[in-house]
Design brief:
This protein starts with a strand and ends in an 11-residue tail after the last strand. The protein folds into two domains: 64 residues; 214 residues, Fumarylacetoacetase-like, C-terminal domain (Fumarylacetoacetate hydrolase, domain 2, Alpha-Beta Complex). The strands form four sheets. Strands 1, 2, 3, 4, 5, 8, 11, 12, 14 and 17 form a ten-stranded mixed β-sheet that branches. Strands 9-19-18-15-16 form a five-stranded mixed β-sheet, with no helix packed on it. The radius of gyration is 19 Å and the shape is globular. The chain is built from five helices and 19 strands. A hairpin with a 3-residue loop joins strand 18 and strand 19. The chain has 299 residues and is of the alpha+beta class.
């Protein structure tokens, strides 16, 4: 199934896509996190009832919001999960180079980064001089668990969607070689456009691309991941509980702007598209916003 969250006036409404229509779920169902948290039999009954009698709207022209807006923790992320990306940035990490890791590298992003699949990306040159794009596939956790073995990791996946892990490279370097700050600027991470359940796609064959102003900048298949999703879930959950509705980004392939010669950084007016077979696309423009306010921090 393909779950979608749409805006209706001042509120949002959860539904699923069938053909060219959105089948809306009852408002009392709540958001996607609430739906994921239902017992499987109850969730199936809700979906069946909506399919039989629910309100339907055309998918074309719908105002699509991020599929998940309510987080109980930061957005979970994976770094360096395509070796081509790890290698392309050697010597360009401004003194923060490390050896190739033997296990996944994890970090987090503050939830206020999340915007919808067609929303404007907030841009303020006072925050950073090095804005970069990162096309990623995201996992939505369906069943919670701790210390999940790789062989059972698939049982804990509710679905997949796309993310653009927009990053501020100078902020990444500024704060002690950790990435939280350089990944957490408000209103900068498109997520969506819908959450697709695993039965809908063959993930290793999915081709992920990023286009900047119409030019393909990143192009890879998920099978190129350094650590496959089963290993990501096993490693991340080792001694740490994952919860239903958690979002885990799985890393970006080669082609980032910071690694190019000369570097290519985002600016106001740029359009960035992240797309993948079976997962749809994110299409976002960078629009100037006042993010720095009265801050006296100087970058």
């Amino acid at each position: 199934m393909r779950f979608i969250n749409i805006r209706q006036g001042e509120s949002e409404r959860l539904g699923f896509v069938e053909g060219g229509e959105i089948v809306l779920l009852p408002r009392e169902t709540g958001d996607l996190v609430a739906l994921i948290g239902l017992a499987p039999d109850i969730r199936s009954a809700v979906l069946d009832s909506a399919r039989a009698t629910g309100e339907r709207l055309p998918l074309a022209g719908a105002d699509i919001a991020a599929p998940i807006r309510r987080f109980r923790r930061d957005v979970l992320c994976t770094g360096w999960n395509y070796w081509t990306h790890f290698e392309e940035s050697k010597g360009k990490r401004e003194g923060q180079d490390v050896d190739r890791p033997n296990a996944p590298t994890f970090f987090t992003k503050a939830p206020d980064v999340v915007i919808g699949p067609n929303d404007d990306i907030a841009f303020d040159a006072r925050i950073s001089a090095k804005w970069d794009y990162e096309a990623e596939i995201a996992i939505v956790i369906g069943k919670g668990g701790r210390s999940i073995p790789k062989a059972r990791a698939h049982e804990h996946i509710f679905g997949f969607c796309l993310a653009n892990d927009v990053s501020q490279r100078d902020l990444q370097r500024r704060h002690g070689a950790q990435w939280l700050k350089g990944k957490s600027i408000d209103g900068t991470m498109p997520l969506g456009p819908m959450v697709v359940t695993p039965d809908e796609i063959d993930l290793p064959k999915v081709r992920l691309q990023c286009l900047l102003n119409g030019e393909v900048m990143q192009d890879a298949v998920a099978a190129q991941m350094a650590f496959p999703i089963e290993e990501l879930i096993a490693e991340l959950s080792f001694g740490m509980t994952l919860h239903p509705g958690d979002v885990l980004l799985t890393g970006t392939p080669a082609g980032i702007g910071n690694a190019r010669e000369p570097p290519i950084f985002l600016k106001a007016g740029d359009e960035v598209i992240v797309r993948a077979e079976g997962l749809g696309e994110l299409r976002n423009k960078l629009v100037e916003r006042d993010l720095a306010g009265d801050s006296d921090v100087v970058i």
